[in-house]
Amino acid sequence: MDSFEKDTAKELTRFEYPISPIEKGYNNKTLYINISDNKIVSKPVTDEMKRIFTGGKGFGLWLLWNAIKEKTKWNDPANEICIACGPLGGTTLYPGSGKSIVVTISPLTQSVMDSNVGGYFGPYLKFAGWDAMEIQGKAKNDIIILIDGDEGIVTIEDAEGLPADTHLLGAVLGERYSNGSPRSISTVSTGSGAEHTLIGVLNFSWYDKARQIYRYKQAGRGGTGTVFRDKNIRAIVTKFSKMVSDINHPADFERLKQGGRRYTKEIRTLDPTQNEMAKVGTTHLINIMNDYDLLPTTNFRFGSHPDALNLGKEVYRKKFHPGFDGCWLGCSVACSHGVKDFTLKTGPYKGQSVWVDGPEYETIAGLGANWGIFDPDFVIEANFYCDTYGLDTISVATATAFTMECYEMGLINKTVTGGLDLRFGNKDASLEIIHQMAKGEGFGATIGLGVRKMKEIFARKYGADPSIMKDIGMESKGLEFSEYVTKESLAQQGGYCLTLKGPQHDEAWLIILDMVNNFMPTFEQKAEALWWFPMWRTWFGLNGLCKLPWNDIVPEDNKATPEPAKVVKHLQWYAEYFSAVTGMEVSPDDLIEMSERVYNFQRLFNLRQGFGTREHDSIPYRAMGPVTKEEYESRKDRYDKQLKELGILDPKGKSAEEKLVALRKYREDRYEKLKDATYKRRGWSPNGIPTIEKAKELGIDFPDVVELISSYQ
Fold first, then answer.
1. Host domain of residue 592
2. Of all helices (H) and strands (E), which one includes residue 663?
3. pTM for the whole thing?
């Protein structure tokens, strides 16, 4: 469908509200919408809510906690989709200040999921008058929610006749609602793939004025888009056109401007000589990960490949369209690159010329190297279809790589795959899987259930060996691994599998510090890092910020500081940023304390959902070490040396099988010791549960929280 006339939309309900100026980063109210009965309510944000939960993810967790009961399922009408920005979000003077955070119960993990995403929606929602929104219930038919921040109106409208896939839908909605000002519109939507899988994403838009197109970032992890479509939401639209630089009404505007200028100048000066984010985005990581044996290839079996640089930064430097590519106004990192006029070779849009947002590192590593495919144009096409279909490229990549290995090992065959020759490197079969996911057909529909469910199905229906699938199925807590090889970094094993939501690198990315620099040789040092870094990284999600400016461009003298990994100068700058906006004078330690409250609360939320204990912090063995003889032999010198120097086993004269068993016992034991040390540092019990003392210390000892913790003692 190419157009959609506004007067054909049936308005189901209307809510009018006064738009008040933002005060020191806050509106002091949230928007509640129940789409089962079309109820719309404004809720107050108290000073206590701000003190304990700060904003962003914190607000989303608190709203969801109070909306659902113990062990509420993802597809229960009571489940919510919560979207928030944060007190610092929407600042145009400070780099990386345009993030939204989505919170919901995940179809994959059955527990609480958070996802940090760019685009203009979160700031526009805030400027429209709301610190957060929560959507509960299920609509009878497809609907659109419109939040008009110019007029102070929220409407729920019938969405009959709208296109299913994002690249078409976003353009139609922009034309429909913008009244000739497309930059005033931002949408949240998903695509046909989210309707038929458990790995749907939400696409958050912004209008690229120079290229005159709507572009998208993804709230990618955990099936947020699947929840969205289960509720029969076709799209959420925000409208706001009254931008000014001091729109957050900061407590000290001059201090904010000075800090923003300083940070922007540093990025523009140093980025060209460091990672070149403004030119190649996150594609520079392909080269680095391949050099350090950390790039996942063929289902994380190996960490490098001779053809890896076919997917590297120099290839995409030539393919990315030149020009400014920030996903929020004023962000000098400008890392959101894309490919213009790409002609699709497959699928329902075959032969059409499209804009493709990305690809970024995770997508290239996953849909490329992890599938044994080193063709950049293939990755671009797969990227486009995953985005417009509303599919998480990380889960698509890791789940499909698992099935490819199962296929090559003979655990499944062509009868199971519907005739697809699903070996590594088969580009045609790989794209066909993505198209099947969008239609809910064939073997693609099975892969769309995720690794955890596939392991159960393959064992029950096809007699596949559960033990080998447990070792090679790269999921934890039900969430597929993001795209880094962790075999040689115990700290990053913890950084993935001690996470709250599952193996995603946004809590702790410690590979280089641990494996390359050996900055944390003891369990206690690793545990300290697995306390500090998740707490610090959580802070960005509380405030509506992107973490990339913090450590992807660093001060010239950073290496000479006592703790270069923390980028201490930037910590101080962020403390000044928060102080300038909110008027609350804080130090870097105060920022960590903000995060620790929310982090521990989210762990307890997992506990209420029936998870959040030691057993759920498990990890597939491939994340710890080599599973197969082939993996061992590929790095034989490394592993033999470790066995000998660590006193595990004299490798001389031993078979590969004997050496695999000895190495595995050692590494599994170390992982359990890491759990012990990390739980202790976090103030948790040996079972991985925050203690009542820790809850009291952080001020989250609400009666229901104390009752919950007590039930596990």
1. 490-679
2. helix 656-682
3. 0.96
DSSP state of 321: P
| Whether 306 contacts 374, CB under 8 Å | no
Q: Are 679 and 686 a contacting pair, CB within 8 Å?
A: yes
Question: Is residue 660 located within the same domain as residue 607?
Answer: yes
- Determine the residue type at 159: A
End-to-end C-alpha distance for the chain, whole angstroms = 58
Is the pLDDT score of 580 beyond 90?
Answer: yes
Reference 657, options 626, 699, 685, 684; nearest CA is 626
Shared-domain flag, residues 229 and 333: no
Radius of gyration for the alpha carbons in the chain, expressed in angstroms and rounded: 24
pLDDT tens across 161-202, in order? 999 999 999 999 999 999 999 999 999 999 999 999 999 999
Torsion of CA 611, 615, 616, 621, to 10 degrees: -170
d(CA 479, CA 683): 25
Give the CA count within 13 Å in the CB-facing half-sphere of 203.
Answer: 32
Domain boundary among 480, 504, 536: 480
The CB density around residue 524, as the number of other CB atoms within 10 Å, is 13
> Residues 196, 279: one domain?
no
pLDDT digit string, tens, across residues 227-271: 999 999 999 999 999 999 999 999 999 999 999 999 999 999 999
667-697 residue pLDDT tens:
999 999 999 999 999 999 999 999 999 999 9
Using CA atoms, how far residue 238 sits from 34, 149, 361, 376, in Å, is 18, 7, 29, 35
Cβ atoms of 378 and 363 within 8 Å: the answer is no
DSSP 247-260: TT--S-HHHHHHHH
Q: Is 521 in the same domain as 596?
A: yes
